[in-house]
Amino acid sequence: MATQEQQQFQVQKRLAVISQHLLTEPQNLNVKNSIFNNCSNDSKSSTSPYLWSNWARTETCHPNYVHFPINAYQIKETIRICIENNEKLRVFGGSCSPSDLCCTSDHLLSLNLMNKIINIDFEKREVEVEAGIYLSELSEELFKVGLAITNLPAISEMSIAGVISTGAHGTGVNFGLISSHIISIDLINGKAEDIHCSRDENTDLFSAALCSLGSIGIIYKVKIKCEPTFNLHAFESIDSFDNLIDNLHENVNSAEYYRFWWYPHTDKCLTWSANKITEQIFNINEKEIGFVDNLIDRHLFEVSLLASNYIPYLFGTSINKFYLNRASKKLQIYTNPTNKISKPIKHYIGRSDQILHASYRYSQRVSEWFVPDYNAKETLKQLKYMVNSFTKRGIHIHSPIEIKFIKADFGESNKLNQISNSSTIVNNGAWLSPVQKTRNESWFCAITIVAYRPFNQDPKNYKSYFDSFSRLMTYFNGRPHWSTDLGFWCDELNGGSIELFKSSYPRWNQFIELIKQMDPNRVFSNEWIERVFQIK
After folding, report:
1. What pLDDT is recorded for position 246?
2. Residue 172 in contact with residue 257, Cβ under 8 Å?
């Protein structure tokens, strides 16, 4: 049991994390009065004392009130205050979303102080946690007791509530969204009602909550299915773009975890694959960044990106080729013990969560789309053609473009797979899952483009690049990741409309009705919710 001093240290640690995103810190914040810090039933002030920003510094807002509840009761009280004063409430966690999903000028609430593990059922391999806990914290605590989550997204500084609400994912054609590991959810809706839902109870609400964008309630407690701790043997190698695409279906099934990065302005890709293994950890320190690597890969890279904004012909293609060559030089000849084939690779074994997580260093604009397996090859070929057309116009496309693979789900909730005490669920069940089946898809290809912001400056022409990308993805029946750039889908002036969402999500109308039922006063609404769901 943690001592009072240890608990206080943990609180201060969490507040340090919060302050990274709340650029103006609350005064005299402590656990006991956290919910009512600068909060009352009086009329809101004309000038906000706070400034919030997401991680990439691409979105900011000035909430009049900021809340740090430590239990469900305090969340309910915050919602009641908003109802009484006809004000809005949004929630932030790790602030990783590159959109204005969390922004509001009224009340902003953080679950960062609700980050405890409530209970662990070792027999069932289930863990119940407060939803403010970050994946990095949860993975570390689970490792101590011999458990792990089967698949994880690359970003570890995300709260479990945010992971569920935005449809976060890892990679591997046998793994769905991270929410496919969720057993039950406790949330508080816009009427300040505490509701429990699961794959057996309140199933429609559960299916909606698995990817709800904070529109139907505040998730404060979840139960997650785990498995025994495992290591991963990871391999990195260089291959040609054309060879990877020609053999795409074979490649995605060649390992349990698989993805690759294409370097625009070149024909080369860095591939990454990993499988579960029982051997001990080795070479994991190769992932650590030394002084010289940090100088070249971060500072020199950022300066080069800034220069490419003004002299794209001199710097644009050279940057991508230079860093591709750096990746190539780290490879060594390795002979596969099974087929005796030798080729240059980099390989290492490590704890699953440490291998699956990655570091994202630069402020960036992001757009990610999910394309069904039957269109994946042609989509990637056309993406290369599109990128090359930008190159001919002197527009530098930032690298790399990341391609991951996710198992398709059915958009309806299902019970746990009881076979072999599996850690995954038969189907994810999220009504708004961007990887749900509409035909006979087995998996979806997740394609992510970035526009780095050197020294917080947006690159030139990135909007036309992102718009062309979203149109290409739409043509091949793609769906956007909810927390990234939604492209022209929300731009009615350029042909986007609510009909694009309706046609892509069979349960769209039911979801809208559930929002109206769970949040009749639109407490959880903001510009993003109104723009996407077309309700006020």
Report:
1. 96
2. yes
Q: Which residues contact 483 (CB under 8 A, 6 or more apart)?
A: 96, 97, 98, 99, 101, 166, 167, 213
Q: What is the dihedral of CA 139, 220, 105, 521, to 10 degrees?
A: 150
d(CA 89, CA 354): 34
End-to-end, the C-alpha distance of the chain in Å comes to 47
Cβ 498 vs Cβ 180: under 8 Å = no
Query: What gap in Å lies between CA 97 and CA 135, rounded to an integer?
Result: 15
Written as six digits, the tokens of 407 are 């198992």
Whether 346 shows a pLDDT value over 90: the answer reads no
The enclosing H or E element of 470 equals helix 462-475
Q: For residues 135 and 152, is the Cβ–Cβ distance under 8 A?
A: yes
pTM assigned to the model:
0.86
Q: For residue 522, how many other CB atoms are within 10 A of its CB?
A: 18
Triad 371, 57, 97: Cα angle to 5°? 35
> Which residues, at least 6 apart from 152, have a Cβ–Cβ distance to it below 8 Å?
135, 139, 170, 178, 352, 353, 356, 357
Contact 185, 129 (CB under 8 A): no
Q: Which of the 8 DSSP states describes residue 259?
A: E
Residue 93's nearest CA partner among 156, 7, 9 is 156
From residue 298, how far is each of 191, 292, 359, 401 by CA, in Å? 47, 10, 11, 18
Say whether pLDDT at 249 is over 80. yes
Task: Give the Cα separation of 377 and 186 in Å (integer).
Answer: 40
Q: Identify the residue with better confidence: 530 or 265.
A: 530
- How far apart are alpha carbons 525 and 522 in whole angstroms? 5
H, E, C per residue of 365-408: EEEEEEEEHHHHHHHHHHHHHHHHHHHHCCCCCCCCEEEEEEEC
Q: What is the C-alpha to C-alpha distance for residues 140 and 133, in angstroms, rounded to an integer?
A: 11
Beta bridge mates, 224: 127, 182
| 534, 508 contact by CB (below 8 A) | no
Q: Choose the weakest-confidence range: 169-178, 316-325, 365-374.
A: 316-325
Is-contact 230 352, C-beta < 8 A?
yes
Task: Tell me how far apart the alpha carbons of residues 283 and 487 are, in angstroms, rounded to a whole number.
Answer: 41
Q: Which helix (H) or strand (E) holds 332?
A: strand 332-335
Band (97; pLDDT cuts 50, 70, 90): confident
Of 358, 316, 362, the residue nearest 458 (C-alpha): 362
Instruction: List the one residue out of 95, 168, 163, 179 whose CA is nearest residue 131.
Output: 163
pLDDT value at 22 more than 80? no
Q: What is the mean pLDDT of residues 88-92?
A: 96
Radius of gyration of the chain (CA): 23
Task: Say how many residues make up the chain.
Answer: 536
Tokens linked to 296: 């070249």
**DSSP 3-state of 179:** helix
